Amino acid sequence: MSAATTLAAIARQKAIMVVRAPDPSAAEAAIGAAVAGGIRVVEVTFTVPGAVELIRELARDSRLIVGAGTVLSTDQAQAAIDAGALFVVSPGLDADVVQHVIDAGVLMLPGVFTPTEVVRALQLGAPAVKLFPAHLAGPDHIRALRGPLPQVKVIPSGGVNAANAADWLAAGAIAVGLAGSLSPGTAHPDLESIAAEARRIVAAVGRAHHTNEEELSLES
User: How many structural domains is the chain composed of?
Assistant: First the structure.
């Protein structure tokens, strides 16, 4: 799958599960619950022990778009790509990592916060950016960024949940990343709660998608 195809698929799904867990089994169980709730895009962060093997296992599931998160080096990026990651996400803007992933033909989503970082990410060739930590800015930050930079595609992450996901999408985000509301905080996650939250998120982004389509129709 090309980087452009992956980005288009993420934009259609609109919700990315950002996985943080104390061990691989907790991560796998939480992912299973979220997938049962309708999530189809999964970002396994390198803070999860055994992240590369988990990516490799998940990449075999044709239902899923699997990527790697919290990527801090080109070595981590390459290990994730070799395991089958279709996208790579970093918490900050590292030019070497961005260039390495782009050269590999894989979707790169570098972390940004300021206009300067957004401009630099675009100059490096990133097709989209991750706004992080999103909760420190709020949806209006995306509106402000897209004023002078209407071409930028933004995916907020950090503090996003079912209650506010639609607000981020209405502000111009193409998708949202969700960590705390879906990821297990313990070795024994509440799988029913994760599945229920996943269903709420899928419903919320679905409603936002239809609302945006209706607004575009009225404007045309």
Answer: 1
